[in-house]
TrEMBL record:
SUPFAM superfamilies with a match to the protein in the record: Aldolase
Gene3D superfamilies xrefs: Aldolase class I
GO molecular function, one term: 4-hydroxy-tetrahydrodipicolinate synthase activity
This protein's name: Dihydrodipicolinate synthase family protein
Coiled coil: none
Keyword Lyase (UniProt): yes
Length: 307
């Protein structure tokens, strides 16, 4: 099968909006899809940790992946994960159902293919089983930190890349030397490496990597889109913007699931603060002010630097 390389740029890790009754809010999800695309993203990563995949039933994971793929309508590619079971056989069924939605790639969570005390040979054998079980599916990789953080060695990344079956990797080491080694390992293959840690986005682009797929793109994708589109054409502005984006990663630990929804409300999206993993009641007026002021700073950056 012919696998296309994932387009370079910014790939937001998508939220899953919920109604006040705790159901998936599909009208809000459609708004979110269009808002991301209108803000210049190059692809979408649905059914991931930011999507609260650990709190979605298999039926919901399948439905969300299908909805995002259908409503995106080919404007940008869509990848999705969602194999969260302990049982490998159950994971195969999750992969079968979610990949059948038509997403451009199914993203394998690296900590699901081997236990924490198992080595990379075990991981490789299970990955080979998946590739053989689904010969017509394109895959991705995601170094998800939950339930434990399994980072792939550059050698294992090269093995995956050399199969020709992988197109997308969300790299989560927060280690620039590891990131560079993985980019080099994937050279000449369809696999593009996207960093999750936003202080390194510019360095990743300069080193031939794919770009950014991290938490902050879920609410300020336009800034990352500008950086990944213009880093080589306007290097001075790109460096200034990277400095700002690197510092803004401190927001990641500040009520991410709720604060991000509040930010999107300020952007005009009809989305509730409802989350299945966090309590909206813990989001206080002080936190609202933080988000409001952060958004104004983002607007100032766009108006003074990028326009």
């Amino acid at each position: 099968m012919q696998v296309k390389q994932a387009p370079k740029g910014v790939w937001p890790v998508m939220l899953t909006p919920f109604t006040k009754d705790n159901e998936v809010d599909y009208p809000a999800l459609e708004q979110l899809i269009n808002w991301y695309i209108d803000n210049g993203v190059h692809g979408l990563f649905a059914v991931c940790l930011s999507s609260e995949m650990l709190h979605l039933s298999l039926e919901e994971r399948v439905a969300v992946a299908r909805f995002v793929q259908e409503k995106t309508a080919g404007r940008v590619p869509v990848v999705a994960s969602g194999h969260i079971s302990e049982s490998f056989q159950q994971q195969l069924e999750e992969i079968r159902q979610i990949s059948a939605t038509g997403v451009d790639a199914f993203v394998l969570v690296t900590n699901r293919l081997a236990a924490e005390d198992e080595d990379e040979e075990v991981w490789k054998r299970r990955a080979q089983t998946i590739l053989e079980t689904f010969p017509d599916v394109t895959f991705g990789l995601y170094e998800c930190p939950i339930p434990y953080h399994r980072l792939l060695s550059p050698e294992l990344v090269k093995w995956c890349a050399d199969t020709g079956r992988f197109t997308f990797m969300k790299e989560c080491s927060n280690n620039l030397e590891q990131i560079k080694a993985k980019i080099k390992a994937a050279e000449g293959t369809p696999l593009n490496i996207f960093v999750a840690n936003n202080p390194h986005v510019l360095e990743v682009m300069q080193g031939g990597g794919g770009g950014y797929s991290g938490m902050l793109a879920s609410f300020q994708p336009d800034l990352y889109a500008w950086l990944t589109d213009n880093w080589d054409k306007q290097p001075d502005k790109a460096e200034w913007l990277q400095n700002y984006l690197g510092a803004s990663c401190l927001y990641e630990g500040r009520h991410y699931h709720i604060g991000t929804r509040y930010y999107l409300q300020l952007e005009g999206l009809d989305i509730t603060l409802k989350s299945r993993s966090k309590k909206a009641s813990d989001f206080k007026v002080t936190h609202e002010r933080e988000i409001e002021q952060f958004r104004k700073f983002n607007q100032y950056v766009k108006q003074t630097l990028l326009e």
